[in-house]
Amino acid sequence: MVLIKNKCQSSVSMQGLFENLVSAVLVINEGGEIVCANPAAENLLSSSARRIEGQIVREFFQGSEEFLDCIAQALDYPLTKNEVDLCIPSILKSVKVDCSFSPMVDSEQVLVEMSQIDQKLKIAKEENIVAQQNVLKMLVRGLAHEVKNPLGGIRGAAQLLEKEFETDDLKEYTNIIIGETDRLQKLVDNMLGPNRPLRKELINIHSVLERVRQLVKAESPSELEIIRDYDPSLPEFNADQDQLIQAVLNIVRNAKQALQGKGKITLRTRPERQVTIGHVYHRYLLRLDIIDDGPGIDADFIEQIFYPMVTGRAEGTGLGLSIAQTLVAQHGGLIECYSKPGETTFTMLLPLLNEENN
């Protein structure tokens, strides 16, 4: 980060220390402008340093009065505050942090160090989702094996029986048997998810989102608005474009159905740093938020939405979100969901650094 040398008058060694701190750190000048943000701060605030630096702190953290008051006081003396609610209206995010505020020696600047206290709960939730998916995958594969074998026998027997009929009157019944076994076979295959290997290539996530946006707009009424909030600094990465299009499309269609064709869906991309998914530590990830302003998902139901055959709609199959989670998991990523009345957010985390492009 070149800015830290110019704006914080820091040596090269201090720059390295600043960038590798686990705690999120901001440097704010006497005019209330954010002049430096380390990678941990980018992760906490779900925004790149380029977007953070230069912002006026009272505008960027609008509504975080306790936090803003501490910055003003810290120009005179250091202080510490625990369990501070940090609101970030620009990205519709709120986190609870422990903070320390320190005046910087020989400069009219404040160094703010923040530690997200609910981070451990977040990691535990992510690991729980991964564990559930692994157990579920084993159960579904076992069930599919037990179901597919007798289905093949039923279909074969119906075909043999059909040959014994001399008239077409009774063949109607064997056609029903064959048709229903084929339908069940397809349902079982859908439960298993995609069975082809990934065909990775360098892609841009915004090309994926634009394709999904075009598809959904073409099949939706004009009352549905799809808002783009992209971070252009995100790099290309190795992924299977078709599978990611399918995963994102499943989630966006789910949001559209929740809105009943009227409302707003926001597609937002940001970088994410220092995240552990299923005991695998990732230094740099892509975060995709798919947000709708629908009625929300019931709290008792939200823990089950990624299970196959679980749906809140009578006409739904309950496979769309399950398949999306499987497709993202094949890329080493994860989908999470947070919901309250008036706002539901599906967050897709995808590693940007791997063996191919590290």
CATH hierarchy, class of the largest domain: Alpha Beta
CATH homology superfamily name of the largest domain: Histidine kinase-like ATPase, C-terminal domain
Shape: elongated
Gyration radius over CA: 25 Å
Distance between the ends? 19 Å
The DSSP helix count reads 12
Secondary-structure-derived class: alpha+beta
Topology-level CATH name of the largest domain: Heat Shock Protein 90
Give the mean pLDDT: 79
Give the SSE order as H and E letters: HHEEHHHHEEEHHEHEEHEEHHEE
Pick out the low-confidence regions: 1-12
Q: Do you know the CATH architecture of the largest domain?
A: 2-Layer Sandwich
Major beta sheet summary: 5 strands, antiparallel
Strand arrangement within the widest β-sheet reads 2-1-5-4-3
Beta-strand content bin: 25-35%
Q: Please give the number of β-strands.
A: 12
Helix content: 40-55%
